[in-house]
Design brief:
By secondary structure, the protein is mainly alpha-helical. Helices cover 52% and strands 5% of the residues. A two-stranded antiparallel ribbon has the order 1-2.
């Protein structure tokens, strides 16, 4: 049928998964370079088989490919008893590590707070100082964020 290839081309849905997988691969490569090919758990020198998202992807989907939000771990230190998925202590440890390594990193909670304060700033003058601080941190985070 003449012209049918044009219709098929117009109806074709772009494959976004390939682009997303490419970004994830680039982010993981940068994380592996930063971590030196070793599990980051203190005292462990095993090869990291997995990557842990410090802010879980279910909570912060937009940080899935964010190098500052990913750490290399071996399987035992990712899902074992000393891993962040089973131990609140290690979840908090990796959050503290993230703050120390990347003080400019803005958590999803901070970003949500900034959005809430933006809505309140015209109603309540007390929030302006906190909002200014968060907006400055957000600006620095956008500038310093590790590009992938």
């Amino acid at each position: 049928m003449p012209g049918s290839s044009l219709w098929l081309e117009l109806l074709r849905v772009p494959d976004m998964t390939k682009k997303s997988k490419n970004k994830k691969a680039k982010a993981y490569k940068k994380v592996d370079e930063r971590d030196g090919g070793c599990c980051r758990h203190p005292g462990c020198w095993r090869s990291p088989e997995e990557h842990h998202h410090i802010e879980f992807v279910s909570v912060a989907k937009d940080r899935e490919n964010c190098v500052e939000n990913i750490v290399s771990l071996c399987s035992e230190h990712h899902h074992g008893d000393e891993g962040p998925h089973k131990s609140a202590y290690w979840r908090e440890y990796w959050k503290a590590w993230q703050k120390q390594m990347y003080p400019y990193y803005m958590t999803k909670d901070e970003q949500n707070e900034m959005e809430r304060l933006r809505l309140q700033r015209f109603v309540n003058q007390d929030v302006i100082c906190r909002l200014d601080g968060l907006e400055e941190k957000f600006k620095i985070w956008q500038e310093k964020r590790i590009a992938i």
